[in-house]
Amino acid sequence: xxAYAIGLLHPxxxxxxxxxxxxxxxxxxxxPFGGRFITHGKVPEVHEGAFNGAVVILEFPDxxxxxxxxxxxxxxxxxxxxxxxxxxxxxxxxxxxPGHDAAALAAGLRAAQxx
Length: 115
Fold this sequence. Notes:
Blueprint: E1 3-9, H1 17-30, E2 36-42, E3 54-60, H2 63-71, H3 73-83, E4 88-94, H4 102-114
């Protein structure tokens, strides 16, 4: 099942040169794990809640490869180039399959909650 790495970033201009180096190097860290950008540094149109920043979404073939990418020595080496200069929240999350049914999920959660 497809997995995603999601970054909620709060960049502070001007960007530090380390951030540019991080951007130049990240794709090479993703390639061995089948990672690709879905969106990169885009400012979202917020409809609920509050968010003032940019979003990065990476797609991986599965959670094992997403974790392997994040934990890889190549990616761990460049994390400080971003993290030291851009406050962020980074998360990995599984996607849903093509047959996902929100109503069926709700029914299962409702039944589990009822005990």
